[in-house]
Amino acid sequence: MEQRWEESDDICKNSHSCLVIIYNLFYWEVDMKIAISSSGTSLDSNVDPRFGRCQYYIIYDTNTDSFEYVDNESRQAMGGAGIQASQFLVNKNIEAVISGNIGPNSYRVLSAASIKIYSGVTGTVKDAVEKFKKDELKGTSAPDVQSHFGAGSGMGRGGRL
Amino acid sequence: MYNLILEQGLEWEEEVGCKLIISVASGKGGTGKTTIATNLALSAGYCQLMDYDVEAPNASFFLNPDIKHVKKVTIKHPYFLKETGADFSKCAEFCNYNAVAVVKSEVVFFPELCHGCGGCLLVGPEGAVREKDVIVGEVEKGYADPGINFFKGNLKPGSMRTVSIQSELDKSLEKSGLVIIDCPPGNACSMVFAVKDSDYSILVTEPTPYGLNDLLISIEVLKNMNIPYGVIINRDGIGNDEVENYCKRNNIKILLKIPNDKEIAKFYSRGETLIEYDKSWKSKFESILKEIEKEIGR
Questions:
Q1: Which residues of chain B does CATH 3.30.70.20 include?
Q2: Which of A78, A87, A159 has its CB closest to that of B186?
């Protein structure tokens, strides 16, 4: 009797895990979170031209058409802001990044995580998302600005580092 | 360190008593730090001159020292044994300089950002992180006439480990006599490191809005570090009176004014000093040294 119970339990577990795999396969196709560097917290905000030192990231879920914004804490980093920001987005399981410019360091981290990179994007976040959905954005295969592109003003650095 | 002082007690105090470190600093670049530092050194005759501006060391152009020793400076960089399959994410979390990123079991290392602190070894998976020496520059030691012990550091092009080179120079700081430190421009890490041991700091500036703005930041830094200071105005005659007025209002000593003179610039461009231009400058610099000694009570 006990033996049979265990067997059926196994079957139950297996069928459940099968379902989970099917579910994951299904959502793997459609569930995609993208991060857009943004100057504001809403979809009407402009895409921030800086990737590592932008104000916010809008994390958009193309499956549910919902979004959340996160404050970019790496903005204040003394150095390696892009690296820190990329690491943060990778940990958040982002699959694509949209920004105005992406520097070489961010590029290395993002591509190591095989995240799709779309740079040179301007206009509102909403437009960028729409274009992304229609597959109108062109993927970037190389960093398009030098390091410290976004580190210019407001950093309060005196002379050389 | 403190224990050492306690043990050696008196001896240590004696050493400090006869040592005078003067740093020549400036928030704005190109105001004449090296001019002041080299002329002070030549006026003093017997002293140690340390060129802490390791990114652009140029004091040697004016003093033409005979370089006797060159020593390579290295720092330790981590390397990650990826084949161990260990999880290095702790290293990325720990790194204050964002030199390590760990994404999907891939380690991305940025050598130019690594300060060589060794943190990866401590927090990372045991045995899976190793260290190797990386050359970041060199320090040179030599002698210049009349009796100058000359030291300079050269940062390797592309490297940003300024302070590592300066730390190496620090080891050669003499424990007695007069030491003149030619600081790097700016008010950031490398400047703070260069002035940290000084008994007095000379701030060189020019009478322009830029000069004043950067002077104010330097003053803020020195106040925080409790280092007495005075101001030298170079290229006097250009710009406006704001720097002078500010110093007068705040009782800051103006040690010297150097006029904006094309002849001086010509001498400078040939690698010659103010003293070579006009012997009378020597006594001016000597009196600055005396004034500083008086002010800090030596």
A1: 82-127
A2: A159
A157/B contact by beta carbon, under 8 A: yes
Instruction: Identify any residues that bridge with A47 across adjacent strands, giving them in sequence order.
Output: A38
Domain count, chain A: 1
User: What are the two backbone dihedrals, phi and then psi, of residue A50, each rounded to the nearest 5 degrees?
Assistant: -95, 135
CB B190 within 8 A of CB B184: yes
CATH number at residue A92: 3.30.420.130
- Count, residues in chain A: 161
Assign domain B82-127 to a CATH class: alpha beta
Domain B19-72+139-296 listed as CATH 3.40.50.720: no
The tens digit of pLDDT for each residue in B123-151 reads 999 999 999 999 999 999 999 988 999 99
Task: Give helix B242-249 / helix B209-224 axis angle, nearest 10°.
Answer: 30
- Nearest CA-CA partner of B207 in B187, B186, B232: B232
| A146 touches B at CB < 8 Å | no
A79 at B interface, C-beta within 8 A: yes
A104 part of a folded domain: yes
ipTM of the prediction: 0.71
Of B98, B184, B190, the CB nearest to A84: B98
Tokens standing for residue B245: 């007025």
A86 contacts B113? CB cut-off 8 A: no
Give the range of the structural domain holding residue A88, as residue numbers without chain letter. Answer: 31-149
- Give the closest-approach CA distance of B61 to chain A in angstroms: 22
Q: What is the mean pLDDT of each run of 10 residues along chain A (161 residues)?
A: 47 53 53 91 94 95 92 90 94 94 94 93 94 88 77 46 42
Residues carrying CATH 3.40.50.300, chain B: 19-72+139-296
Alpha-carbon distance values, B166 to A57, B123, B133, B253 (Å): 39, 27, 17, 29
Is A108 an interface residue toward B (CB < 8 Å)? Answer: yes
Residue from B108, B164, B214, B216 to probe the interface with A (highest A Cβ count within 10 Å): B108
Task: Quote the minimal CA–CA distance from B106 to chain A in Å.
Answer: 7
Instruction: Select the residue of A78, A87, A159 nearest B103 (Cβ to Cβ).
Output: A87
Does residue B53 sit at the A interface (CB-CB below 8 Å)? no
| Integer Cα distance of B243 and B218 in angstroms | 13
Q: Touching check for B105 and chain A: CB below 8 Å?
A: no
DSSP tag of A76: G
Q: Report if residue A87 sits inside a domain.
A: yes
Instruction: Kindly tell me the sign of the dihedral angle through the C-alpha atoms of B171, B156, B185, A104.
Output: negative
